Amino acid sequence: MSGFKVAVVGATGNVGREMLAILAERRFPVSEVVALASSQSIGREVSFGDKTLKCKALENYDFSGTDICLMSAGGAVAKEWSPRIGAQGCVVIDNSSAWRMDPDVPLVVPEVNAEAAKTFSRKYIIANPNCSTAQLVVALKPLHERARIKRVVVATYQSVSGAGKEAMDELFQQTRAVFVSDPVEPKKFPKRIAFNLIPHIDVFMDDGSTKEEWKMVAETKKILDPRIKLTATCVRVPVFISHSEAVNVEFESPLSADEAREILREAPGCLVIDRREPGGYITPHEAAGEDATYISRIRDDPTVDNGINMWVVSDNLRKGAALNAIQIAEVLADRGWLKPKPTGA
Ligand SMILES: NC(=O)c1ccc[n+]([C@@H]2O[C@H](COP(=O)([O-])OP(=O)(O)OC[C@H]3O[C@@H](n4cnc5c(N)ncnc54)[C@H](OP(=O)(O)O)[C@@H]3O)[C@@H](O)[C@H]2O)c1
What we know:
This protein is α/β, with parallel strands linked by helices. 30% of the residues lie in helices and 23% in strands.
């Protein structure tokens, strides 16, 4: 197959850098890769495999000869630019929340609803879900197929990289400040994050939940099944990379923890690490840099009919963002739903 011309918007950011690394790692068929960011990053160098790319400004770039735009530059940029880029026949795979709930934009996790990607041609935009939703639905889908999920109760433990590179710097600076007795100044986060945790991600909604919690509810329904009831509490924790989730699931039909473990062992994208001994489970530190959605601590919940508990951990910059976006591009390429534009287009 001849290659696709791919633009990465937000190439200097946490997710953008990961996208460039994963494109190279997975040998996605590219004819050319272009790194784009804001005008203040013109000329800044970023790595693509063993090559170095110089960033160009999004605002000056002509997308008419580009096939795929992997976008990770925040909601405002995505809102403004995705329709313009799509109108030039370049498919935008966007990581922000700007387009996720648009009925004409598929919201895709390839292990769960790859078929939905086919409808990209309505707007030439495909949305990537929120990082916490992506890893959750990878674990829920195979269980839902077997025993039909009624209700999910989830508490998240989300790393600071989910809030961008400045947030990672803030955890680092504050941790250092605590050790040298400097004043600790919250900037990006509403309270101190070093040696602390914050039960608040994104803005508050009228019902007292946060937008991050609402996203998990709405996105799970759109990707997996609108009948699933889900309630979430999303918490930021002083971890650099990987989100963890304590998940309680109630099913329509009987499903034991042992059966769930066997199903998850075979499920695409899942890796079960579940020994009932000290260290026989995954932690965020170990999941960082990995592609799998790890599942541990699978056990029966005796307080409800047909319930289990589990611990789900994944690298939020990879499965939660960059990897999922590139898996979507792979679906388009492998299934022949997108062909490279003729050169000179
Ligand atoms: N981090 C995660 O786990 C995660 C997961 C899912 C989704 N997302 C989403 O992915 C997006 C990026 O997240 P991130 O963590 O990579 O953020 P980040 O580290 O703060 O990076 C932001 C990137 O956007 C670029 N950018 C900002 N304004 C721009 C503009 N006007 N034109 C072009 N580029 C612009 C920045 O370029 P400059 O360096 O030039 O400013 C930078 O490359 C967000 O929408 C976020 O919600 C993140």
